[in-house]
Amino acid sequence: MQERGKKTPYIIGLTGGIGSGKSTISCMFEKLGAEVVDADKISHSIVSKNKPLYKEIVKHFGSDILDEKKELNRPALRNIIFNDSKEKAWLEALMHPAIKSTILEIIKKSQKPYIILSVPLLLESGNYDFVDRVLVIDVPESVQLERIGKRDNISRELAQSIIKSQMSRSERNKRADDIIVNDAPIEDISKLVKQLDGKYQQAT
Ligand code: ATP
User: Fold this and answer.
1) Which of 10, 32, 82, 180 could form a disulfide linkage to 114, CB 3.0–4.6 angstroms apart?
2) CATH match for 10-203 among 2.40.50.220, 3.40.50.620, 3.40.50.300, 3.40.930.10
3) Which residues, judged by CB distance below 6 Å to any ligand atom, belong to the binding site of ligand 1?
């Protein structure tokens, strides 16, 4: 809390497993007037070509880590850190403080009534103890598999192994203040979002 300084808006940490609907639902909140801060987007933008962190990463891993456009080759980087815990720790030590300070900067400047802070690993990371409330987007694994299969064109096995590497549904739900079960038509989910928006608009 202290790091946020005084008089910052109410912060809702939004999380959920891969393909649970975080972006879809964040977008609904945004249309209702929330400030949406997406940690994934921030983590991409702070390492775009020639940014200070980009340079650090290239210095560390060498130019083999770049694609033909000289942008970071994310799958290659993911592969390295997936197989090497030391490199993973190095990259996280570089990235996490920068992501957090960018998030806090956006929050400080926001004029919106409340913030939806979307972070895939909100509950795992321990970096986001400043959120006021946790909103979990929950879906049955079968729905998750079907949606990410369609969207990302990845194998069922890979999708399953990603789901397995993440926090379990029951553990995540236990730590939620609010839960949206995103296993219903979009129009129904929109209504639930509207109800929560009413609650969050009143929160201080
Ligand atoms: P990631 O973890 O990969 O960032 P995400 O949690 O942001 O994913 P989305 O991209 O919002 O998830 O949703 C995953 C897919 O499911 C998308 O193709 C989206 O259009 C679809 N989807 C989300 N909610 C629903 C719904 N209620 N009904 C049908 N399809 C949905």
Assistant:
1) 10
2) 3.40.50.300
3) 16, 18-24, 120, 147, 151, 182, 186, 189
